[in-house]
Amino acid sequence: MPKFLAFSPALVKEFTHFMGHVKLHIPGPVEVSEKTFRAFCTPMIGHRGQGFKDLYAKIQPQLQQLLSTKQLVYISTSSAWGMMEGALRNLVARKVLNCMCGAFSDKWFDVSKRCGKDAEALQVPWGSPIRAADVDKKLATGQFDALTVIHNETSTGVMSPIVEIAALKKKYPDVMFIVDSVSSMSGVPLKFDELGIDVLLAGTQKAFALPPGTAIFVCSPAALAKAATMKDRGYYFDLVEFQKNAEQNMTPSTPSIGHVFALESKLQDIFAEGLEARYARHRRTNQMTRDWAAKHGFTLFPEKGFESITLTCVSNGARPGGRVVDVPKLQKLVKDQGFLIDGGYGKIKGTTFRISNMGDETEATMGQLFAAMDTAMKGL
Ligand SMILES: *Cc1c(COP(=O)(O)O)cnc(C)c1O
User: Fold this and answer.
1) Is the beta carbon of 279 within 6 A of some atom in ligand 1?
2) Which of 7, 70, 313, 329 is deepest in the core (most CB within 10 A)?
């Protein structure tokens, strides 16, 4: 550890503050470890210097392994929405199909229109997944040259069957498949080249458990070729610029360099644990959450068989049957014990609540949360 980190009174104060904070179990941003924060605070370097190039070159193969891709993986200094909007601006020439099943995926339709794109909604009820057969029917009309789909709809806790949906790409090679995996990337396997999709993106503050402010994404050669033909795709999110710069181990503009240091540290953690072990840990901690809900008489909000593995959306009256409690009171009683859980998002606020098991959570840390939640339930 560099000396200044060990001895600076300011940092001692910072970490004391860190110890006493309310721990995040909301589905993003999630809890950031001390190790990650230390990496984030590495002294600054220039983004065109050899130090940065070496750093990016070092993490590139790990990012490629994580996403099972031969393509270069890019780093964008923006929240996920930056790249979500960027993907539309780079890839939609005719009309985009926005697959909608919750707050984030619904919003993508609005964003498409705000970008001046011709867009159509494929809306299913909140709690349901996007099904490949419905997507197929829409694409068969031949109207679309792009679609957006969210793998893990964070607002409803629904994981859509991405392998089935991605399999349609073979039938519609000219349609750009844009996939948001903001709250699933690194928590569940996502094999980019095998899926055959065109864009896969995530923000760092969800399953990666880094601070918010950076997006990680990858594009197919077809997406890069299409982007090159697009007028008015802008500069900041120009996919062609990302590729050109990544070939030199750089980003188009000055990135949040702290995030790249933090990502280097996180990738060390990820590969020390092993990908399969990481995925298995998420499955176990997620099962613990479902068990906690069942133990207290709650049902889950998602349609059976499509529940997320990185977070749990518990029904609190949104579905018939199951227990109903005062969610703000539950949140307060849990918060008083040092943990923040979410009280539901958008139109299902209060009739659901959500618990995240993303990032570094283990059976031990989830156990601490559930002990606090058990105590809170007694106080309701
Ligand atoms: C959090 C989230 C977003 C938005 O991410 P920002 O970082 O706020 O831009 C988009 N999609 C999904 C599925 C999310 O969970």
Assistant:
1) no
2) 313
Mutate to test the pocket of ligand 1, among 24, 76, 79 (most ligand atoms within 8 A of CB): 79
Fold of the domain spanning 37-270? Aspartate Aminotransferase; domain 2 (3.40.640)
pLDDT tens, residue by residue, 216-274: 999 999 999 999 999 999 999 999 999 999 999 999 999 999 999 999 999 999 999 99
Q: State the closest ligand 1 atom to the C-alpha of 152, by its place in the atom list counted from 1.
A: 13
| 132 and 168 Cβ atoms separated by less than 8 Å | yes
Report how far ligand 1's centroid is from the alpha carbon of 65 (Å). Answer: 23
Residue 216 in contact with residue 73, Cβ under 8 Å? yes
Ligand 1 within 6 A of CB of 203: yes
Q: How far is the CA of 361 from the centre of ligand 1 (A)?
A: 20
Q: Which CATH architecture has domain 7-33+274-378?
A: Alpha-Beta Complex (3.90)
The Å distance, Cα 215 to ligand 1 centre, comes to 10
Cα(378) to ligand 1 centroid in Å equals 33
Query: For the chain, which residues make up each domain, given as ranges?
Result: 7-33+274-378, 37-270
